[in-house]
């Protein structure tokens, strides 16, 4: 039986590995090669130009604007999502205090879980169209209509370069919170109830339960969540495509690298230069994930 173990494992892994190589690794290799050419998307034999496309990136103001926007996204979007999701999941699982000797969530927590998760089942395009109506810059917009009732003039949520990116980040947070509420709720449910009950019996309040017990025991889950949210921040293509003015505007104030890759390739037929942007995005994402896992690494708490 032992002698046939490795052929058995190889037999099961061969098909998935082959599919991964064909549909994941192969496109990456092709993108790396195309980034070294001046391919226009038509010719069968593009001209090899080496690192010229990458050299051009250093002088491309729009490229660096997109990189700066990703920096804002990486700072604001994951942090806001994690804080809100942790707060809600704590309320849904432990916020009600002790009932019958056991820790419980607030009243109606099961219903709230469904409500919080609802944005996850909506397609990104639907979310974008929904918030187009909410962010409409005149009195017919939902937000401006509410502001008008208290005497505040309409705000150009998506047409003001100073707040357009933050407005889109708000939509990203709204859509992502529900998933991480469920994720953190699952993490909290895996923690032995005795830990929370013993702390409550010793007089620990909700503040102590949250910061001194819940967060340390959920650290590994939070670490993974931060990486996922960072990768989502490096994407952001769909919402920027639907919500922003002129696809990345106004004045490139909301553009992101996936948007510039799409625009460069399909509007200007510069597939080689677009691939160079894609390679840069690939290494930015990998670097972020590696640094995050390294910086947030800590001793695992056993329970």
From TrEMBL:
* Localization of this protein: Cell membrane
Membrane topology according to the record: Multi-pass membrane protein
Q: Which SUPFAM superfamilies does this UniProt record tie to the protein?
A: MetI-like
Q: Which InterPro entries match?
A: ABC_transporter_permease, MetI-like, MetI-like_sf
Primary subcellular site in the record, as a coarse category: membrane
Q: Where are the transmembrane segments?
A: 7-29, 72-94, 114-135, 163-183, 225-244, 271-293
Give start-end of the signal peptide.
Answer: none
Question: Domain ABC transmembrane type-1, which positions?
Answer: 75-292
Q: Which UniProt keywords apply?
A: Cell membrane, Membrane, Transmembrane, Transmembrane helix, Transport
Spell out the family assignment given in the record's similarity comment. Answer: Belongs to the binding-protein-dependent transport system permease family.
What protein is this chain from?
A: Sugar ABC transporter permease
| Species this protein is from | Streptosporangium longisporum
Taxonomic lineage is: Bacteria, Bacillati, Actinomycetota, Actinomycetes, Streptosporangiales
């Amino acid at each position: 039986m032992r002698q046939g173990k490795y052929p058995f494992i190889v037999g099961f892994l061969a098909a998935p590995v082959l599919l991964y190589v064909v549909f994941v690794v192969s496109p990456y290799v092709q993108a790396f090669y195309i980034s070294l050419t001046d391919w226009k998307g038509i010719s069968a034999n593009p001209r090899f130009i080496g690192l010229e496309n990458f050299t051009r990136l250093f002088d491309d103001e729009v490229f660096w604007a997109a990189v700066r926007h990703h920096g804002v996204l990486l700072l604001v979007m994951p942090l806001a999502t994690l804080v809100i999701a942790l707060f809600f999941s704590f309320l849904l699982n432990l916020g009600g205090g002790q009932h019958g000797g056991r820790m419980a969530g607030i009243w109606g927590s099961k219903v709230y879980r469904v409500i919080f998760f609802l944005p996850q089942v909506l397609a990104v395009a639907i979310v974008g169209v929904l918030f187009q109506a909410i962010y409409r810059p005149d009195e017919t917009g939902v937000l401006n209509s509410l502001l008008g009732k208290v005497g505040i003039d309409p705000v150009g949520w998506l047409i003001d370069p100073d707040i357009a990116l933050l407005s889109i980040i708000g939509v990203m947070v709204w859509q992502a919170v529900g998933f991480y509420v469920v994720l953190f709720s699952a993490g909290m449910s895996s923690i032995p109830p005795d830990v929370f009950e013993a702390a409550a019996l010793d007089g620990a309040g909700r503040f102590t339960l949250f910061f001194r017990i819940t967060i340390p025991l959920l650290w590994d889950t939070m670490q993974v969540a931060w990486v996922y949210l960072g990768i989502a921040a490096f994407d952001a293509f769909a919402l920027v495509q639907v919500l922003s003015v002129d696809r990345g505007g106004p004045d490139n104030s909301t553009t992101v690298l996936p948007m510039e890759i799409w625009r460069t390739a399909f509007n200007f037929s510069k597939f080689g230069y677009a691939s160079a942007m894609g390679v840069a995005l690939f290494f930015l994402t990998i670097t972020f994930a590696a640094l995050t896992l390294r910086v947030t690494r800590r001793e695992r708490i056993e329970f």
